[in-house]
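Write out this protein's structure.
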Amino acid sequence: MIRLLPLGFLLLPLVEIAVFIIVGRAIGLFPTLALVIGAALLGVVLLRQQGLGVLSRMRSNLGAGTLPGREIFDAMLIGLAALFLVLPGFLSDIVALLLLVPGVRGWIFSSLARRVTVVDTGAYRRYSAEDGRLQRPTTIDLDNDDWRDGRP
């Protein structure tokens, strides 16, 4: 799959140009440009609305001590949508607008979450599945090399 990525980067501009030509022939130059600009403006409005919503949910999850995994995924997809909105073209705008729809992001998250296995690496903070809160260890064990008394 990774080997096809460079081919996709080469084909995307060609497909976008072909779609521009087809739409331009069907509705004319100025309506085509108006559609591209309108999709970009609509995307900016949706990007701002969805981005601020994700940030507030992330802030509330962190304040409650729960892991904001879903919100981080949403933020990444919104960032990807912003990248697609910067690229001129109908295909990239359609993909960007779809990524800004919460239902589409939920479907992508659930389909990817079924394939992911979470492994505990014995990190500093542990996640409790019972209440969904982060728990801090009660004892911190330091070796002599890890501890300094603050004297030079």
